[in-house]
Amino acid sequence: MDDALFANVDWQEIAQATLDTLLMLGGSLAASVLLGLPLGVLLFLTGRRQLLEQRAVHLALSFLVNVLRSVPFIILLIVMIPFTVTLVGTSLGVAGAIPPLVIGTAPFFARLVETALREVDRGILEACQAMGATTRQVVTGALLPEALPGIVAGITVTAIALVSYTAMAGVIGAGGLGDLAVRFGYQRFQTDVMVVTVALLLVLVQVLQMVGDRIVAKVSRR
Amino acid sequence: MITFRSVSKAYGEGAARTTALHPLDLDISAGEVFGIIGHSGAGKSTLIRLINGIERASGGSLVVDGEDVTTLDDDRLRALRRRIGMIFQHFNLLSSKTVAANVAFPLRLAGGLDRAAIDARVAALLERVGLSAHAGKYPSQLSGGQKQRVGIARALACDPKVLLCDEATSALDPQTTASVLHLLAELNRELGLTIVLITHEMDVVRRVCDRVAVLDAGRLVESGAVADVFLHPRHATTRRFVLESEHVDEGERGEDLARADGRIVRLTFRGEATYAPLLGRVARASGVDFNILSGRIDRIKDTPYGQLTLAFSGGDVDAALRELGAADVTVEVVR
């Protein structure tokens, strides 16, 4: 088998790595959305001339988001280790990778949500106010449904960013396809392993983008 | 129904403070169609938004349906807003919801109705505005006039006493404008709905309003019954609106008058006088000749009127004018 095309490829390991990547991606994407969506809504609502205009709160949130977004992800991975251990009991494997992935992407997603909400016609919010809607009703009844295409597109972008972040998470022993590519493909010069893992990552990104675009088209009514 | 007392509005603080509305008084009665006309920047958008508290007044008191909007807390203000419908220049429909869901939206916000009751109410409202066949469509699939009809159905959902119209026909073509204005007049007549509309077109005022107020640079410069304001404008801004609506150029009109001989008078006929063969009779009796320089015969809401500018010559002009005055025609000597 030594002269075979993918001599160094251990398919079972590839399968395990693929599963790990998908688990990391799914877990951290879900948590990023759960955390980033309310954060994005709050950023929007507390902004200038918005429903809950609160300059101090807006500036504080905005600063927190900017701080988290300016820390290089590779540094965040390492800095987060003690926190991750107290949160999930380990800093290794899929479970250990999810907290830094979420902290790395939730602020990014929050900004995308804020931008999507700003795209909603102000007139629609005014109409809701004129109908006697509470702020909560404006958010759930009008703001989020109107911004849904933008939010779904934001989730797609976030998911794809997460794919490359999961690859970096290999540094702290997270496993996954990216880790495999670095350890075997790069450090041991096993080009075939590199090619297979990168091809799988490419397929993953393609599928994410395609599914995301389909959903956006389905929820767009404009 | 709506009473403004020294209501003013300013934006900004300190040196950056700009006045949008100078203190003004205004009374709008229940069941009337009240127009507020002004050029852009005159403060009419601000004025209409004070009524439902989307803009809060900086001073004075504003009583709507028995409650002072300027002192209401958030809950009471929301309750009041449910009794005031509003439609907009750009419709402001929810693009993510169907026509039926848009109309149902205020009912869902208000709560208290079950699904079946909401469905029945929505069906009745869509029937009322003639859009039953489009219930399942999305706003992007509708024409401008249809969108505004959805806006009207939505505004009527909670059975409001007052309907605020913010340049509701300004984005529509003339034919669609006419049909939307017709619908508004019908709602006013049949439901006794009080309508407050703002516009920059005298034509809109002429077609549906009972009374009108003219706003210029944040000040109320003239107000009264539409026929009075429209036929005998006193303030320069009002005159400009009237001329605009007649597509008349003031300079050209002056040149035309300068060229005419004899006594120039403007006659205004109203109501039944519009239909009487008065001019010929008076001319024969007094022996004057007349030359029509300009004229218009039209309707202000339901009242027919005519306005003619004539040059009289020969015969007994004074007798002719006396007789016209006696016959319920307003005579203004221009030259």
Task: Write up this protein.
With 222 residues, chain A is mainly α. Helix content of chain A is 78%, strand content 0%. Chain A is built from 9 helices and no strands. In chain A, α1 runs parallel beside α5 (93-118) and α5 crosses α7 (135-168). The longest helix of chain A is centred in the N-terminal third of the chain and has 35 residues, at 11-45. Chain B has helices at residues 44-51, 74-81, 99-110, 115-128, 144-156, 174-191, 202-208, 226-231, 236-245, 250-259, 278-286, 317-326, and strands at 2-11, 18-28, 33-38, 59-64, 67-68, 84-88, 162-166, 194-199, 211-216, 219-225, 263-270, 289-300, 303-313, 330-333. The two termini of chain B are 44 Å apart. With 335 residues, chain B is of the alpha/beta class. Chain B folds into 2 domains: 2-236, P-loop containing nucleotide triphosphate hydrolases (Rossmann fold, 3-Layer(aba) Sandwich); 248-333, ACT domain (Alpha-Beta Plaits, 2-Layer Sandwich). In chain B, the strands form 3 sheets. Chain B has a 6-stranded mixed sheet, sandwiched between helices. In chain B, strands 2-1-4-5 form a 4-stranded antiparallel sheet, covered by helices on one side. Chain B contains 12 helices and 14 strands. The relative contact order of chain B is 0.12. In chain B, 37% of the residues lie in helices and 30% in strands. The mean pLDDT of chain B is 91. Chain B is elongated, with a radius of gyration of 24 Å. The A-B interface holds A 121, 123-124, 126-134, 137, 141-142, 145-146, 148, 219, 221-222 and B 52, 54, 78-82, 84, 86, 88, 90, 92-97, 105-106, 108-110, 138-140, 154, 158, 164.
